[in-house]
Design brief:
Elements: H1 3-16, E1 55-61, H2 63-66, H3 76-86, E2 91-97, H4 103-108, H5 110-113, E3 121-125, H6 128-132, H7 137-153, E4 158-162, H8 173-189, E5 193-195, H9 217-232
Helix pairs in contact: 1-9, 3-9, 7-8
Amino acid sequence: MGWQKLVMIAAILTGCGTPETDTAPVDTGSAALPQPAVNAERSNPPIDQAGETGAIIVMLGDSLTAGFGLPSDQALPDQIGDRLEASGFKVQMVNSGVSGDTTAGGLARYDFSVAFHQPDLLILALGANDYLGGLAPADAEANLAAIIERAQGDGVPVVLTSVEARSTGIDDPRALAFGEIYPRLADTYDIPHFQGLLSSVRADPSLLLDDGLHPTAKGLGLIADQLAPFVAAYIPEP
């Protein structure tokens, strides 16, 4: 990692606080995206591959990524990009979030949601709807593993994210099972794991939409404050 990148990461950390890392198993059960899946993600035109526009970062996820209930420029990928650029990084963020999507859906659309953009980095943020929909943890893990393998086969680094569960493993054995997926995948594929996407907003109703589940633009900003410096460390050198 060059000294310029270290300076830029330090700038983000100074302005945004310290991100959570994967010190304990967490669960993806509480992104809580009960709205029906839609047929298409936000419209993403082909990305300029000239290299002058910076690193291409795709965020593959569900409504937490898509920016459910918000203008497109306030979605999480956009806010991450704003913070990275404010700290000196040159990036293009691609919002590949589909509200209501599952890990199977993310895998099925990998070619046009990820590979099509020829990204330099993939942020993988799926699994909440698998938990909410009663899908098997083993299937979710297999789908996430397949996405990671596709990306690594394409030479694309992956940052894995997860959402902490509201319930404990004692109260909900499925929560524990889902929580174990993410650190295990991170270890298996030697990729970074950012946990607790909603931990900074969940306890404050003012940071959530009226459904009590999805963050407001301000709430997503707090998430971006934590996730941006974490992601910055894994942006490939130009």
